[in-house]
Amino acid sequence: MELDIFVVDAFTDKQFSGNSAAVVPVVDWLSVDLMQSIATENNLSETAFIKPINANHYAIRWFSPITEIDFCGHATLAAAYVLFNQLAYVGEIRFSTDKVGDLIVTQVETADSHTSAKPIQMSFPNLAPEPVSSIPNALTAGLSITPNVVLKNQQAYFAVMNSAAEVVNVEYQSELLALLAPLDVVVTAKADDDSKHDFISRYFWPANGGDEDPVTGSIHAGLAPYWSGELHKTSLVGYQASIRGGALFCQLKDGRVFVSGYGKLYLKGVIYV
User: Fold this and answer.
1) Whether 212 is catalytic
2) CA angle 97-98-102, nearest 5°?
3) Considering all CA atoms of the chain, what is the largest pairwise distance in Å, rounded to the nearest integer?
4) Measuring CA to CA, how many Å separate 231 from each of 99, 132, 154?
5) Cα dihedral sign, 111-112-114-116
């Protein structure tokens, strides 16, 4: 069997930054074992498999190198990038998922003069985190800096730090954070006053995919509502401060969280299985 494969750097308009995701279009779902084997072989944060339902409507599933994932933003952006830029789709794309409902994705016009690329906007559910009544020992022991506030949603614990510098400098112990499974950990803080971003974050997911994820679109379905409440604004720019780094443009509207970013094609080829 031969399968097309694309690798896209998501949440960036430059190669070798943002977060890489593989996209594999299929006519019908492969077996779970085979999809997992392909994702493990790819060894990227995520491999997205997309299956057509009808015109501009796809089912999507995401696999990390170790497990199937309930919700992944950067691989959704990568899948939309492939459909728009490699397979000539236009208009709105609907991705149906098992865990988070339908995700509506569009290309949007921009006044940004430094690139001719169009950002891709994704409509996510509002997954605002809630304060926790008890902070797990594995969280505080697994981070080198004690957070000021801890919250959680269905995806992760949110460790809110006192400053952007603490987010950048915090160290983590994967073996301890893995004990928080099935939840991951995001550390976040308000950006510095002179920054072009509103908030920054880093994302650790040893329980589900690896150590530190370069750019995590899905967690901004929780970060954007949280920082919207703290900063009293509905349009925000987040920056994920990993080594690769990536910018995410967020807007809260009509009970949804809209997350936008750029994509850049790195590779297209064929899988032989």
Assistant:
1) no
2) 35
3) 54
4) 29, 21, 23
5) negative
Q: What CA–CA distances, in Å, run from 213 to 57, 133, 208? A: 28, 27, 11
C-beta atoms surrounding 260 within 10 Å? 23
**CA–CA distances in Å: residue 217 to residues 10, 239, 243:** 9, 11, 16
Take residue 168 and report the two structure tokens written for it.
Answer: 């950048």
Lookup: tokens for 28:
């019908």
Q: What is the pLDDT along the chain (273 residues), one digit of tens a residue?
A: 999 999 999 999 999 999 999 999 999 999 999 999 999 999 999 999 999 999 899 999 999 999 999 999 999 999 999 999 999 898 999 999 999 999 999 998 765 545 567 899 999 999 999 999 999 999 999 999 999 999 999 999 999 999 999 999 999 999 999 999 999 999 999 999 999 999 999 999 998 877 999 999 999 999 999 999 999 999 999 999 999 999 999 999 999 999 999 999 999 999 999
What is the C-alpha separation between 192 and 206, in angstroms, rounded?
28
Q: Which of 41, 46, 68, 92 is catalytic?
A: 46
Scored b (16 or more CB within 10 A) or e, 52-76 reads eeeeeebbbbbbbbeebbbbbbbbb
